[in-house]
User: Fold this.
Amino acid sequence: MKIKSGDEVMVLVGKDKGTKGKVDRVLPKLNSAIVVGVNIYKKHQKAQKGTIQGGVIDITKPIAISNLSIVCPKCKLPSKIGYKLGKDSKKRMCKKCKQVID
Ligand SMILES: [Zn+2]
Assistant:
């Protein structure tokens, strides 16, 4: 998985194209991620007895990782990620500025 929680990413396609946000959670099984402020849908919720109030709530839906690009923390550009292999480690590397991201 090239994207991790806490990464800054940019959306490449869809209604939020060009939007940047921080990855809140990665969902490997769905090949998706929850990105703060991206892919928000309004959901109308009926009032229920007890604590839940009726009204419109915002739901952040997962977005496919293939639709995201990492924004490199070093050069601040949306970039493809490569790997730099060390002796015992595999670190992510920005293909644009060649800096290790992790
Ligand atoms: Zn970079």
Observations:
- The mean pLDDT is 92.
- The chain is about 0% helix and 45% strand.
- The chain has one domain: 8-94.
- The first strand starts at residue 8 and ends at 11.
